[in-house]
User: Which sequence fits this backbone?
């Protein structure tokens, strides 16, 4: 007579449902590390995908060489951003602050200043100043946390991909284990499905980022903005964040635009970014996402809205993959299988 434990192991649908709940519980407990977890996964997926792509064209090139060259290029890009883009942005910010200060001290603003000072309570100004300082401190802390998570993710993904074959061989030992073999088989089952769906959406967002960057660089070139390629790099990186990335790029572009052409350029940039944001939200995002995931445009919009509400910015990135993954798991709609050689789990 079978025991309850044996019946549980043989009931594959119920067993996988329990394993899925267990995975969700573990991820919820690790929510403080979610930036590092997701970024590590993204970096690892991209590098593994690049390895498979290069080895299809050049089979004799070792994966180690591809990984080392890739991360050297990443470090070179970070060096370019730190040494070229950030100083340029800092210079533009200082120029903008100086221009605003000189405009504030000008004769045409003296009457307005007295009028505002007369009607605005000083205690309210102090409270608003404190609130603004707290927001700035929170933003600085968030940027610092994300920076640390990014560097940790790069390190972890490097060590994973540099020993990709060894990692896969070692991971397969869990599936061949004795007592908990069924558990690791189910984890691998869900892992393969999520990698497949996430890869499809990541490719879609990559194409969207290219379109956004091309449109933005054309507009900036017409406006004769400086450092077009540096600004294009920034827009491309931010565009990898669906919907929100284009809006975030408005802040540094407005600062640089103000120092180049004054408030007139700020208005131009605002109009350009709003138009590009509308194109992404109403054309590119539904088109690419729905074509890659084969979801109706309505469901794509709905998932993005709900995921952003519950998960914030990360919800815009992983919302559609999670929804597609769940559809695949419950057999509502299967995702087209990618080449097995592109899998992170079973790569050779």
Assistant:
């Amino acid at each position: 007579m079978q025991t309850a434990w044996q019946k549980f192991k043989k009931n594959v649908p119920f067993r996988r449902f329990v394993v899925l709940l267990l995975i969700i519980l573990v991820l919820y407990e690790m929510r403080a590390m979610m930036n590092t977890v997701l970024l590590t996964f993204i970096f690892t997926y991209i590098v593994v995908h690049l390895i498979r792509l290069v080895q299809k064209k050049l089979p004799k090139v070792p994966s180690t060489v591809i990984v080392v060259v890739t991360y050297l290029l990443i470090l070179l890009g970070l060096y370019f951003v730190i040494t070229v883009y950030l100083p340029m942005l800092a210079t533009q910010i200082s120029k903008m602050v100086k221009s605003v200060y000189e405009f504030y001290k000008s004769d045409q603003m003296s009457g307005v200043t007295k009028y505002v000072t007369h009607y605005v309570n000083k205690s309210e100004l102090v409270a608003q100043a404190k609130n603004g300082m707290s927001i700035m401190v929170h933003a600085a802390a968030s940027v610092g946390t994300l920076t640390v998570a990014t560097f940790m993710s790069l390190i972890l993904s490097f060590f994973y991909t540099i020993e990709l074959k060894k990692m896969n061989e070692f991971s397969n030992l869990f599936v061949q284990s004795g007592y908990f073999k069924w558990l690791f088989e189910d984890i691998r089952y869900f892992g393969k499905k999520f990698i497949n769906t996430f890869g499809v959406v990541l490719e879609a967002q990559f194409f969207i980022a290219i379109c956004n960057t091309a449109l933005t660089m054309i507009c900036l070139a017409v406006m004769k903005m400086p450092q077009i390629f540096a600004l294009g790099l920034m827009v491309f990186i931010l565009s990898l964040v669906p919907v929100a990335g284009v809006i975030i790029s408005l802040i540094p572009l407005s600062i640089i635009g103000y120092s180049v052409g004054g408030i007139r350029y700020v208005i131009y940039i605002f109009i350009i970014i709003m138009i590009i944001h509308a194109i992404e939200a109403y054309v590119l995002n539904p088109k690419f996402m729905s074509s890659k995931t084969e979801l109706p445009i309505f469901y794509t919009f709905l998932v993005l809205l709900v995921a952003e509400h519950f998960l914030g910015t990360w919800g815009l990135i992983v919302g559609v993959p999670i929804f597609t993954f769940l559809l695949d798991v419950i057999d509502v709609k299967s995702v087209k299988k990618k080449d097995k050689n592109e899998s992170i789990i079973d790569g050779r």
The chain has one domain: 14-106+136-342. Residues 14-106+136-342 form one domain.
